[in-house]
Write a structure and sequence with these properties.
Mean pLDDT of chain A: 88
CATH superfamily of chain A: Winged helix-like DNA-binding domain superfamily/Winged helix DNA-binding domain
Strand order of the largest sheet of chain A: 1-3-2
Number of helices of chain A: 6
Distance between the termini of chain A: 34 Å
Largest interface: A-B, 58 and 58 residues
Low-confidence stretches of chain A: none
CATH architecture of chain A: Orthogonal Bundle
Shape of chain A: globular
Structural class of chain A: mainly alpha
Largest sheet of chain A: 3 strands, antiparallel
Number of strands of chain A: 3
Radius of gyration of chain A: 18 Å
CATH class of chain A: Mainly Alpha
Oligomer: homodimer
DNA sequence: GCGGTTAGGTCTCTAAATGAGACCTGTATT
DNA sequence: AATACAGGTCTCATTTAGAGACCTAACCGC
C-alpha cells in the first residue's frame, strides 16, 4: 500500500506541483475539514435546508455554514436549490460526487469509533508522563 | 449506508454528547486536518525524522509540525523515538493504530484524484455564473 | 396595522489559530 | 574561534473563525 502512495507523491512532485497549488490538497481541505465533514454527514442522511442544518449542527455559526456550503457547492460535491416559495427556501443535497465520498467518510468515522478505547488509553499514557 | 450514520448520530445525541465534547469529532479533527493528513501520508511511506518531515513538507512551519506531531502522538497514532546519538535524533513512525488509518486516508486521496476532472469542471461552472 | 417570527443570508468586530522567523542547547567540523 | 546541524521553543504579525447585529420580504396573531 505505501508504494502506491509513494508513487503518487513522486508523480505529483515530478509534475511540478508546488505544494501550495496541489489540487488534491485543496479538495481534501474542503472535504475533510471540521465543518464540511459534519455537513456532509448530515446531508448523507437526507437533503436539508439551511436553517435545518444550522439546527442540526448546534455549534456552527451561520458564517461558517454559508462558507462551507459554498466551497462544497463550488467543488460539485453538493447542490444548492432555491425554491420560489414564500419565504423562498433553499435545500442542499449531495451530488453523485458527494454520494461517492460519503462511504469513505463513514469509514473514517467508523475507524475513529472503533479506535476510541485505544486512543483514550494512549492519551492517558501520554498525559501521565 | 445512510441509515448506519443516522443511527450513529442518534446514538451520540442520545448519549448526551454535547457536540463540542464528541470524542470522535476530536479524533477526526486531529487526523483529517490539513497538516496531519500530509504528515500521515509521509509517515505511511517510511518512518522519518523531524527535519526530514520538514523538508518533505516544504510549506509547513516548525511550529505546526511540532504541534501536529504532538497531537498525533498523544492519540497513539504515531510514535516518537529519541535516539541518543550526537546530536540526538528523533524519529516518528506510525503505530498499528496509525497503520490502520492509512488505507482510509489513501482511499480519500484516491477519490479526490479520480474526481478531479469533475471537480474542476464544477468549479468552472460555478465561477462562470 | 403593530409586534413578533421565519428563511437565508451578509457585515462587523473580536478572539483564536497559524505562519515567519529569531533564538536556544549541545556536539561536531574546519 | 566560527559555523553547522538536530530538534525544538518563543514572539509577533497575519489569517481565520466565531458571536452576534442587521437586512428583506412575507406571514401570523390580535
Amino acid at each position: 500500500m505505501p508504494e502506491v502512495s509513494a508513487r503518487k507523491l513522486q508523480d505529483w512532485t515530478e509534475q511540478g506541483f508546488e505544494p501550495g497549488n496541489c489540487p488534491v490538497r485543496q479538495v481534501l481541505d474542503h472535504v475533510s475539514a471540521k465543518w464540511p465533514v459534519l455537513i456532509l454527514l448530515e446531508l448523507g442522511l437526507k437533503p436539508m435546508r439551511f436553517n435545518e442544518l444550522l439546527r442540526a449542527l448546534p455549534d456552527i455559526s451561520k458564517r461558517m455554514l454559508t462558507q462551507s456550503l459554498r466551497n462544497l457547492e463550488r467543488d460539485g460535491i453538493l447542490r444548492r436549490e432555491v425554491f420560489d416559495t414564500k419565504p423562498p427556501s433553499v435545500t442542499y443535497s449531495l451530488t453523485d460526487l458527494g454520494e461517492g465520498f460519503l462511504p469513505h467518510l463513514l469509514a473514517l468515522v467508523d475507524w475513529a469509533e472503533k479506535g476510541m478505547p485505544e486512543i483514550v488509553a494512549a492519551r492517558q499514557r501520554f498525559d501521565r508522563t
